[in-house]
Design a protein that fits this description.
The protein contains ten helices and twelve strands. With 310 residues, it is an alpha+beta fold. It has two domains: 88 residues, Arc Repressor Mutant, subunit A, CATH 1.10.10; 204 residues, Endonuclease, Chain A (2-Layer Sandwich), CATH 3.30.870.
Length: 310
Amino acid sequence: MLDSVKRYVRHVSEDSHAGVPGRAQERVLKALRSAMADGTYPPGAHLPPQRELASRFGVARDTVQRALKVLSDEGLIESRQGSASTVLGRVEQATADTRGRTHTLASFIGRAFERPEVVLDVYTLTSETLDAHIRLQAERIRAGDLSPERITLRMMVPDEELELPYPRSKANPADGRAQSRLHRITREYVGSLKRTLHDLREGDCVPFVEVRVRRVPLTPTFKLYLARGEEALFGPYTLIERSILLDDTDEEIEALDVLGIDATLTYHVKDRDEASPGSSFVRSQQEWFDSLWTQLARDDEVRQPSRLPH
């Protein structure tokens, strides 16, 4: 069940409202509007079948039908007999509901892959976390749960020739083994990510796949994920002290490093108001990414062919 729906359902007592059709309908409406507002159901997405929604909310199917009729009358969805309801637009209060809200990378990447065209721009330290989520989406595609027509990924990671301030040995800052380990990890996960998407194309799962990775002479102080220039997931790296196991010697050292997988991420989305905080943030971050991509970054290696052979 989708997170936004789950959170709401958990906080509403089924016993206190199940016998009141009006309240049950409003409960379904509020949860679905919230899911459309935060991008869980973006424009073009399909809502779950009525039977599934009724089961999720613990209400009668006719309650779900009435709620969908309201959303249809509001112009938010299109319902057709015998087919899933299609989301036509984002709920107006999306900016207010999503501004500053903590989101997970899993939900962000999952929504991106549910669209016919997947467009992602990423700025990160190693791509370790992203690789895990991309592989998960690849499994969904192979299983037939998703069927994107195009996948375009641009990613920037630090140049290996750049001396980074972290990770670094606390006892001996001149010891470069921690950074050598970081570069090896980056190469490993970048390679894994490329292979995963390349295999989708070669296996006829996705007709068009383009993956480009570039190196930039900058130390990432934050991670940034952009989807279609419309949504952004942003999180600063927090400096910590932790033990690092050096692969070559199995020696454990105390090092200054940053939080990666556990970094807190905030979600921002563009809306109809170009001057809103969400719109301004996404636009400025996309402009920043594009400027680095074209002016400062260099290709990590030759990109793969983008189309399937005929």
